[in-house]
Amino acid sequence: MAKKLPDTTSESSLSPLPDNFESVTKEVTVQTIAKGKKRKAESTVKATKRIKEEPALDDDIVAGAEITPRPNRRVTKKAIVKEEVSDDGIEVKKTSARKKKTEVADNDDKSKVMKTIRRRTKTVKNPEPIAQRTQDTKLRIGAHVSSAGGVHNAIPNLIYIGANAFALFLKNQKKWESKDLEPEAAQLFINGCEEHGISAADCCVPHGSYLVNLAHPDPDRKKQAYDSFLNDLSRCHRLGVRLYNFHPGNSNATTREEGIKLIAENINQAHQDPTSGKVIALLETMASLGNTIGGTFADIAEIIELVEDKSRVGVCLDTCHIFAAGYDLRSPEAYATTMEKFDNEIGLEYLKAFHINDSKAPLSSYRDLHARIGTGYLGLRAFHNLMNDKRFHGLPMVLETPINVIGEDGKTSEDKGIWAREIKVLENLVGMDVESDEFRELEAKLQEEGTAERDRIAGQVERRNAKNAKKGTKKGKKKAESEDEDEDDLEE
C-alpha cells in the first residue's frame, strides 16, 4: 500500500510539482526467469508514482486504499516429442501433453490455477514386416496383437507378423475405468484396414475384459459388468468389427442355472441397444469346470438357447481350453468325435472363430496353460486335423501362444517372430501328408522343444490328482478343477 513521503526541498532544475500531486514509492518484486534454467532471480525495484490528490478525500481514506494487483501473464509449456524404439523394432512416437496454466488473483489475494490439457493420439510407425501376408491362402490366421496407444496401432502390428486375422483389446482389460474411443484412433483403424485390404468385419475378433462376469446377480456388479460389455460392443460397431469374443462368466455368487440365465439376459439387453449395431457376441469355450461357466458344450448350448436373436450369438472355440476340459483333437478319429459333439449339442453354424493354442497340460487336466504350436500335449497332428477341415476355412483363427523368451542377459522379452513362424507352419499344414518326412521331422522337433515344460506341468497335475483322491471329497475336486496352480503360465 502506498505511503506518504515527508516534505523535502528539491534541488532539481525541473519545475516543481503542483500542490495537488504527491510522490509515493512502491516496492515491486520482479521475478526474472532465465530461459532454459530452473533457478529464478529476484530483484526489488523502487518505483516513484505520481498520484493526483482528490480534494474530496481525507488522509485516512487515502491511507487505507488498496492497489489491485495485475493478473499474472499466461505461461505456456510447449509439447515435447520423444522417439523410442521398442524391442521388436517398432518405433513409437510419443507426444507429451501440452499444458497451459493461467493464474488469476482474486480479491482475497488467492491464486486460482486453471489447467487445460490436450492429449494426442500415439501413432506407431510401420516397421518392416518380418513375414509377408500370404495372399492365396484359404485360411485366415493371425494373433492377438497389441493395441497400446490406440486401436489403430493393431494394424501395423498384424502386418509386422504377416497375419490375415487378429484380436486386440479395445480398452484396458484389467481395469473398470476406461477412456472413450478417440475418433481419431477409430478413423486411423478404419483407414489402416482399407489401405492393407483387411476386412475387419471378417477377420477381427476383439477380446473382452477379464473383469466382466455377466453371471453375477448383485445389481451393482451386474450393472458394472453389463456397461463394460455394451461399451465394447459399441466400440466394435464404430470400428466396423462384426465379431466380439468374451468369457461367459462364473457362478461363484449364484447357482449355475441362474448364472446361465443372467448371461443370456445381459446379451439380450445389449442386443436391444442400438449402439451395439449388429455385432455378434461370441461365447468362448473355457478350460475349467467347478463354478466356471462354459467348460462344457452343454453350458454354451444352454446360453444360446435363451438368447432371443440367434443371428447375433456364436462361439469362439479355444483348442487349448476344450482339450483341457476333456475334448480330444489329436487323432483324426478323436477330432471327428469332438466336432460331432459340438454340432449335436451346440450346432456348427454357431462356430464363428478359433483361438489356436497348444496345451502345456494333458487332456482333462482343467488347466488353462497355452503352449506354442506343436510343443504341447495336443501336438502338431491336432492342428493338421483342424487346418485341413474345409468347413472352417475362412473363419478367423487367432494365436494366443506365448512369445516370451529369455535372452543371454537373463532378461525376458517378446519375440513376435514366433507368431510369424507359427502362422506359416499352420498355413503349410494344408494338404501336407502326415506320413511325409517333412511333417515327421517338424513334429519331432517341436515336441522336443516342449518336453521340459510338458513334464513339469504333468508332475503338477499328477500331484494334484493324488491329493484330491486322498481327500476323496467332491468339494475338493471342484476347487482343484477351478483353480490355477501355475498362474505365471496362464497366457490369456
Describe the structure in your own words:
It comes from Neocucurbitaria cava. Residues 1-23, 445-492 are annotated as: Disordered. Residues 466-478 have a biased composition (Basic residues). With 492 residues, the protein is α/β, with parallel strands linked by helices. The protein has 3 domains: 1-8 and 19-67, no CATH class; 71-120, no CATH class; 126-489, Divalent-metal-dependent TIM barrel enzymes (TIM Barrel, Alpha-Beta Barrel). It has 14 helices and 21 strands. The chain has helices at residues 59-63, 154-160, 183-195, 200-203, 219-239, 256-272, 297-306, 319-324, 332-345, 379-387, 417-428, 437-449, 451-471, 474-482; strands spanning 21-33, 40-52, 75-76, 81-85, 91-95, 98-105, 111-118, 123-124, 140-144, 165-167, 243-246, 249-250, 280-284, 292-293, 313-318, 351-356, 358-359, 370-371, 396-399, 404-406, 412-414. The strands form 7 sheets. It has a 7-stranded parallel β-sheet. Strands 3-6-7 form a 3-stranded antiparallel β-sheet, with no helix packed on it. A 3-stranded antiparallel β-sheet has the order 4-5-8, with no helix packed on it. A hairpin with a 6-residue loop joins strand 1 and strand 2 (40-52). Helix 6 packs across helix 7 (297-306). The radius of gyration is 34 Å and the shape is globular. The protein starts with 20 loop residues before the first strand and ends in a 10-residue tail after the last helix.
